[in-house]
Design goal:
about 450 residues, mainly alpha
Length: about 450
């Protein structure tokens, strides 16, 4: 253990206010570059994939990806719990505890992945996939093969992607973003090859996308542990008693993750079931356009999560206040950017994917409102997540999740808003966070004598 501690001290720097700010700025800059390239590649991938398949099959593909992305939320909060616990261990230079957390988390998440793989194999032959994806153009047998292949790769990547949370804990968020860049690069390359050498089949696309996803995660994992061998997972450092410690906070994160899953990841399935898979395509295209705003803002706030954890653990409230103030001021150009996208959305989409994608002006307007609300909520959500004060956000998210699906169906079907009704349902469910997030944050960083009912609610 002495050798281990020596390596540790050589590789981990102490983060004071100035150092923390420099690190955050560095990784925001790098993340911006990586994310900009990743977004550019993803925008190229959309017309390429639609061209390889067709509008209906693309709708099925996007629905399948959104459903499979649910896998990432079923880690019972291990990822985010590890992120916060590991950050605190790094803040006090406790290498042994850090390695125990990492080793234990990998064992736990591998066990979860195995359980889900067994469930997938059991359910596969008995599930009416044609009804789930609301299509007759692709056979049930073909859909079963696609679901199995994509499911296998997503579960494999479920384990590998734990490395991204470790990057965050090390306050190296840009490397986690590099994984998305690599994935999109590999996916774009393989899809291009599919167009030239095969006919449009979901199965081929599933195999290539899965290989792209796993390859990018493997490269990231190898890179990290080559530089940080002090925390390479080891069976000798597995301590199952730490699972409860990690998930004590992680369970709350898990509940929030489940709520987020219902609010954000069910849209494609709702549209598929209520309106048909052809309506998924225009919804996703418009959503992806406005993701320029939401993803761009995420680039800024993602490195702050662990920075908040570090600053709060050291009592550096002044740094937290200054950071939040700058993020609030940034809302002004963000709102202007959203208005510009709303005005020129049709022109941009016509150039991007062609004029055959039909969507309403109302969908564009509501998607802009959603982007502003999402950005505002994330300013405070990342702070509260970083310091572990998530009891109130957990309650709000739970109620939002309960209301999201019925509201989306009501607006889309009963009120006949179509796919616009789905994003309207999301907006309504996110609205409470617009008020309660800032209130809780203000209470935590400004109120000195925390006691009574407010303390029970906000702390």
């Amino acid at each position: 253990m002495k050798k281990l501690s020596k390596n540790w001290s050589a590789k981990i720097a102490y983060f004071d206010s100035a150092t923390r700010t420099r690190v955050v700025k560095l990784h925001i800059s790098l993340t911006f570059v990586y994310k900009a390239l990743a977004i550019g590649l993803s925008y190229l991938l959309v017309p390429l994939t639609i061209g390889y398949l067709n509008i209906e099959q693309y709708g099925i593909w996007m629905t399948l990806l959104s459903v499979m992305s649910w896998v990432a939320f079923f880690d019972i909060g291990l990822g985010n719990g590890l992120r916060n616990k590991l950050t605190k261990a790094l803040a006090v230079n406790n290498i042994k505890l850090a390695k125990i957390y990492v080793s234990t988390a990998y064992v736990a998440i591998s066990f979860i992945a195995f359980i889900f793989f067994v469930i997938l194999i059991f359910l596969l032959p008995f599930t009416p996939w044609n009804k789930i994806f609301n299509t007759t153009s692709v056979s049930n047998i073909e859909l079963s093969k696609v679901v199995f292949v994509v499911g296998f790769f997503f579960l494999f990547n479920f384990v590998l992607s734990l490395c991204r949370q470790i990057f965050y804990a090390y306050q190296q968020a840009s490397f986690a973003t590099m994984g998305q860049l690599l994935l999109n690069l590999f996916a774009l390359t393989t899809t291009y090859l599919l167009i030239h050498y095969t006919s449009g089949r979901l199965l081929y696309l599933g195999v290539c996308y899965g290989l792209s996803m796993v390859s990018s995660s493997l490269l990231l994992t190898y890179y990290f542990y080559k530089k940080h061998n002090e925390v390479i997972p080891s069976v000798r450092y597995v301590d199952l008693s730490k699972v409860r410690e990690i998930t004590s906070l992680g369970v709350k994160f898990f509940i929030i993750q489940m709520a987020v899953l219902i609010i954000f990841a069910t849209d494609n399935m709702i549209i598929t079931q209520v309106l048909g898979p052809t309506q998924v395509t225009p919804y996703n295209v418009v959503f992806k356009l406005f993701s320029i705003i939401t993803v761009g803002h995420t680039i800024l706030v993602t490195p702050l999560w662990s920075a908040y954890t570090d600053a709060y653990a050291k009592g550096d409230i002044r740094w937290i206040r200054n950071t939040l103030k700058k993020l609030n001021i940034l809302m002004i150009p963000i709102i202007i950017g959203v208005l510009i996208l709303i005005i020129f959305a049709r022109n941009i989409i016509n150039i991007w994917v062609g004029s055959n994608i039909k969507f309403s002006h109302l969908l564009v307007a509501f998607m802009g409102i959603y982007a502003v609300i999402s950005v505002w909520n994330n300013i405070y959500a990342y702070f509260l997540n970083g310091i572990g004060k998530i009891k109130l956000p957990m309650v709000i998210s739970t109620f939002a999740a309960i209301g999201n699906v019925p509201l989306s169906i009501y607006f889309a079907k009963t009120l006949q808003f179509g796919n616009t009704g789905v994003i309207l349902g999301t907006i309504v469910c996110l609205s409470p966070g617009v008020i309660f997030g800032p209130l809780q944050t203000w209470y935590i960083i400004h109120v000195k004598n925390k006691q009574g009912m407010l303390n029970a609610i906000f702390s």
